[in-house]
Amino acid sequence: MTRLQELVEAGDRLIVTGEAPAIDGGTLDAFHGRIEEMAKWVDAMNATDNTAAHAHASNVACAIAIAQAGVEPILQVVCRDKNRIACQADMVGAALHGVHNVCCLTGDDVTAGDEPEARRVFDLDGPQLIRVATSLSRGRYLSGRKLEPAPPLFVGAVENPGAPPLDHRARRAAKKIAAGACFLQLQICYHPDRLEAFVGALEQQGLTSRAAILPTILLARGARALAFIDRAVPGIDVPAEVIAQVEQADDQAEAAYQLVLEQARHALSLPGVRGLHLTDFRHDGSLTRLCQDLDIPLMEERRAHAHRPQLTV
Q1: How many helices (H) and strands (E) are present in the chain, helices listed first?
Q2: Which candidate, 102, 46, 109, 78, places its Cα nearest to that of 279?
Q3: Does position 309 have pLDDT exceeding 50, yes or no?
Q4: What is the pTM of this model?
Q5: CATH architecture label of 3-304
Q6: I need a labelling partner for 6 at 20 to 30 A (CA). Which of 219, 247, 276, 299 fits?
């Protein structure tokens, strides 16, 4: 059983996951240096799969590199670029190296990336891939062929609480949980009311007891970064007034940080939220500051005090 699975099944423990930066090459030492700060705080770290439809170092290779750094990896698997055979191969192959957490995504369309002429695959969608991963964990390929021994996969997914049609998002999340997702890492949402409504809908249906809900908190440097996210990241809408508030501040970096701190406190206050998923675009020590301001202990401290109840802010 992975540490992430232990925390999710405990039901009353704070969970902190993070997203490793996408890399295009270099050395393992350089990669380990880039994740060093985040590694101190997170219970598990995502190895992304060609994020935003841009080619990067492979998800399986990065997941193994994360494990070699002493951090528990979460293997992202995206449906856009691979058919069902390749997706199953990723999960089973990574499991040979002890990578047992899996996060299933449909993925952005190829037009979101820098090679829009690439052919789409989308042989499966996110909920279908979750069912495939669940089947693998039970010892069967999708074809029905036996898989022995069955890899002990712990399966999660992603959902966007802030993208229209809003009422569809909670229903889609429910489908993913029914398919076997045990945790949901939510896309960054700059609309607190939408996040609150989404989590509230899952809580009302009793689904937050079946899957850990982890809203994303994204550390950005200032108004320019927020405007880029609004313009270039599919499914993410940053309100103009939020960008303007940061842009007009005397210290944009500090204003952007205070926005992040407010988002994190709001997310953790919502019934049914089990923790946070952290993405760091700043790489200036703000991630450490955020965890300290939220009174989140270092990962090793949380691990050493298994009896510690879930933290509140």
Answers
A1: 13, 8
A2: 46
A3: no
A4: 0.95
A5: Alpha-Beta Barrel (3.20)
A6: 219
